[in-house]
Design brief:
Elements lengths: L1 H17 L4 H4 L9 H17 L2 H8 L3 H14 L5 H10 L6 H11 L2 H14 L9 H15 L13 H7 L9 H18 L16
Amino acid sequence: MRGTDEEDERLKLIRRYVTPDRRYLKLGGVLLGMGGRDRAKFMRKLGQAAGEISPRELGLLLDGGWRERKTAAWLIAVAGRSEFRDRLGELLLASEGPYAGQAYCVALATFGTSADADPLVAYLDRYLPRHDLYYDQTAALGALLLLDAKLGADHAARFLTPNGLWQQWIEGPPPKDRDAHDSYREFIGQLCSFADESAEHCQKSRHGVTFRRR
């Protein structure tokens, strides 16, 4: 009975947070093409949703499919809920499928601490040697480079050495742009900026707990 109740609740959460205006499809590169009123409206609604949803509800979405996980990760990023760091790191490392991993990387990058580099490093260590999975290597490296720039660190350096894991992955199938790692950092940075702007609308949850991101 409990499982049925949780599934019913998850379906309600999907209708409330995931599918309105096909939100789950727009969370990513599509955001960068938005402008004017559409951009402002989307940011406002995203920020408000991030402030309304409870930690338990986020957990239920993270237990769902890629659409729910992707949306939950963005809501976590906007609200700055770093208590989900370990859970997002586990999901990223599991790499159970495409589409959601980029959102985990964005969330980790928005948290902005050295602890957030650890799951990105673990992901790259595991998946750069793999040429059968082309999911989130570019997003993970971009997020790691962004964190390094923020923190004055060099977590990504060993991946970028000549004949290092990054070069080996780039040279493996399918064909890839070997000089694009800076553009990956810029791309993740733009997505993080969108999350930061949306956070301006995320100030108070419906549970009466007032908070501000960072």
